[in-house]
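go over my protein:
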Amino acid sequence: MATEFAEESIDALAIGAWILGTGGGGSPYLAQLNLKRLYEQGRRCSLIQPEDLADDDLVAVVSQMGAPLVGQERLVDPATLARAVRLMEEFIGQRFAAIMTVEIGGGNALSPFLAAALLDLPVVDADSMGRAYPEAQNTSFAIGNLKMYPLSLVDCRDSEAIVSKVPSWVWMERISRKITTEVGSVASTCKAPRTGAEVKEWGILHTVTKSIRIGEAVLEARRAHTNPISAILKLEGGKELFVGKIVDVDRVATGGFLRGKARLAGLGDKQGDELVLEFQNEWLVAMHGSNPIAMSPDLICLLDTDSGEAIGTETVRYGQRVTVVALPSPEVLRTEQGLRNVGPRAFGYDFDFKSVFER
């Protein structure tokens, strides 16, 4: 049974998803304003629990694909997201029963709501990452070795493409990323259709409501003039890693990704110390000198020290006072196959995963 998604939950969802985005998924701010405008126009969204899906229901999995920095200039249009879903329906000759996001992180947490407001489909309380990641093979559906095609892609110039078949998740990433880069490094996509049974078995469940809970905790802490970061850590069982300020950012948009490093100088108890955060759309590794102190799939979150607001890889800048925290990752990401897909070696690092929460 689908329930109405309250307009009052939009801000909390955006705040929580930005934190879970680990620097990626795109800033939710513009999507947040877009969804509020749709509600002002009388549109409404509903939320369905994954357990309420029939096993043979078809679920559309949507996202904005590309480099987050470019997404700050080429704004998300709900119509292109909706068109990506309809294009997939035309290709497979079937209708979707619901819609979900590929990643709960950042602006992509709101992508299914923007499409659903136009399509009158319920949004599933689930995603396939429990955070944000840059590539197709980083999803729980890829970890489960589910079918990776077809994929539909639509851009703001009405370019439309279908990737009808590929041999692997890596090839789906390579081909769809290349198309995205050619149309300007931002596009709306509908991933391979999932059945209700697949979502229930391989999806990361209840992450929409999790994001809302995190956002509500931050908002409540701000109202009570208490520490919002402490509220996040208490709610999620997280750990504080570093407190400091941003002293240097080296970043470049290349190949459809945003890559680089942010260097932090310590403040307070960390005075004289330094931390480097490395990213590919998302914060992937926290380096203390030559020692990695946190790494994917643990969630590395860069937060404004005063407000608890997340800071993305495209919005981080010199002078920001920040706190770096780690949050636990979904269990499926820490399995043997999960680590092959999202552990540090999957992103080119020459060390094995060691969790902050196992020390």
In short: The chain has a mean pLDDT of 95. The first helix runs from residue 10 to 20. The longest strand covers residues 239-254.
